[in-house]
């Protein structure tokens, strides 16, 4: 059994050289994928902190990396119409020679929409998830090479075509989010991968809901890559891991990395924390890595992978 690791490099409070070098370090240490946010304002600590735009840094990484998959964790569907998003993902796929993942979600941070006058915030979260469902359907058709027109509840496309086609015969779409009624149904119907986070009890309940949606739409859930994310800091001594974690939080002006289980300690401790999720069927672990990027954790995640593979 192989466990894949993805590095979610926070794009706030960093420089391009630091971001690039962390990605290259992850690739050199055998990580499977690199991810970053799709936010225009900082989402941890004061929103005024500096932050890079997601698709731009992924394209830059595509030109300097060789093997890692690249994607947003996850894209804000409200920022762009589905045609533009499909074109961005396709361009990244060509720049990276077939390593793009189209990560997408319903969006949640109203402040950045207000700040930049982005109009598609909608009347509430339910409407944004309906918008996401229609958008993912359209992106899948464009990425798969269809030429078509569409008039829907939210989007109108007229003789739309995505040329060139992606390098990948099937460029994967990952959906992030855990809404039981809408997000997980869209995942069951349309996604190649799914990202979630939470306690093992929370995640197990969501998997059961996803299983039911898959049964309802006639989808084999094994076709969907299950990914789960955690803040992780690896040190031989827990106290050293806690100190490194606290320093990173302080740099980003926050006291947490999202209110999800946090794994701070030795490779064995981290592997023990991940094992219940692996037993549930998760084979991809996304590690939340704020700047300044923790190169020791990047270097030592392979030890965690070996422990999980041995089990």
Features:
311 residues, eight-stranded parallel beta barrel, alpha/beta
Compile the SSE list and pairings.
Layout: E1 4-9, H1 16-28, E2 33-36, H2 54-64, E3 69-72, E4 75-76, H3 82-95, E5 100-105, H4 110-116, H5 125-143, E6 148-151, E7 156-160, E8 173-176, H6 183-190, E9 193-196, H7 200-217, E10 225-234, H8 238-251, E11 263-265, H9 267-280, E12 284-289, H10 295-310
Parallel strand pairs: 1-2, 1-12, 2-3, 3-5, 4-5, 5-8, 8-9, 9-10, 10-11, 10-12
Antiparallel strand pairs: 6-7
Helix pairs in contact: 1-2, 2-3, 3-5, 6-7, 9-10
How does this structure look, described?
The chain has 311 residues and is α/β, with parallel strands linked by helices. The protein is 43% helix and 19% strand. It has 10 helices and 12 strands. The strands form 2 sheets. It has an 8-stranded parallel β-barrel, surrounded by 8 helices. It has a two-stranded antiparallel sheet with strand order 6-7. A hairpin with a 4-residue loop joins strand 6 and strand 7. Helix 1 crosses helix 2 and helix 2 runs parallel beside helix 3. The longest helix is centred in the middle third of the chain and has 19 residues. The mean pLDDT is 96.
Number of helices: 10
* Head-to-tail CA distance between termini: 9 Å
Shape: globular
SSE sequence, one letter per element = EHEHEEHEHHEEEHEHEHEHEH
Structural class: alpha/beta
Detail the poorly predicted runs.
none
Helix content: 40-55%
Tell me about the biggest sheet?
8 strands, parallel, barrel
How much strand content do the residues show? Answer: 15-25%
Overall pLDDT, averaged? 96
Strand order, biggest sheet? 1-2-3-5-8-9-10-12
Question: How big is the Rg?
Answer: 19 Å
Assembly type: single chain
Counting DSSP E segments of at least 2 residues, the number of strands comes to: 12
């Amino acid at each position: 059994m192989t466990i894949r690791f993805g590095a979610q490099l926070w794009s706030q409070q960093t420089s391009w050289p630091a971001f690039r070098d962390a990605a290259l370090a992850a690739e050199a240490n055998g990580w499977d994928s690199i991810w970053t946010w799709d936010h225009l304002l900082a989402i941890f600590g004061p929103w005024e902190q500096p932050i890079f735009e997601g698709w731009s840094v992924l394209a830059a990484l595509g030109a300097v990396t060789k093997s890692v998959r690249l994607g947003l964790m996850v894209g804000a569907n409200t920022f762009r119409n589905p045609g533009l998003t499909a074109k961005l993902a396709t361009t990244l796929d060509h720049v990276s020679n077939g390593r793009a993942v189209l990560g997408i979600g319903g969006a949640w941070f109203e402040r950045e929409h207000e700040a930049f006058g982005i109009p598609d915030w909608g009347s509430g979260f339910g409407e944004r998830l309906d918008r996401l469902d229609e958008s993912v359907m359209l992106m899948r058709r464009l990425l798969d090479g269809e030429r078509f027109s569409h008039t829907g509840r939210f989007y109108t496309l007229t003789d739309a075509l995505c040329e060139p086609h992606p390098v990948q015969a099937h460029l994967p779409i990952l959906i992030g989010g855990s809404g039981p009624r809408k997000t997980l149904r869209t995942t069951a119907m349309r996604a190649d991968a799914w990202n979630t986070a939470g306690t093992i009890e929370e995640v197990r309940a969501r998997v059961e809901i996803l299983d039911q949606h898959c049964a309802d739409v006639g989808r084999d859930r094994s076709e969907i890559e299950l990914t789960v994310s955690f803040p992780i800091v690896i040190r031989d001594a827990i106290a050293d891991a806690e100190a490194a974690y606290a320093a990173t939080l302080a740099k980003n002006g926050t006291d947490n990395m999202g209110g999800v289980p946090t794994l701070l300690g030795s490779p064995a401790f981290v592997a023990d924390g991940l094992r219940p999720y692996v037993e549930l069927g998760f084979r991809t672990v996304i590690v939340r890595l704020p700047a300044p990027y923790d190169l020791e954790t990047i270097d030592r995640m392979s030890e965690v992978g070996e422990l999980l593979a041995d089990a």
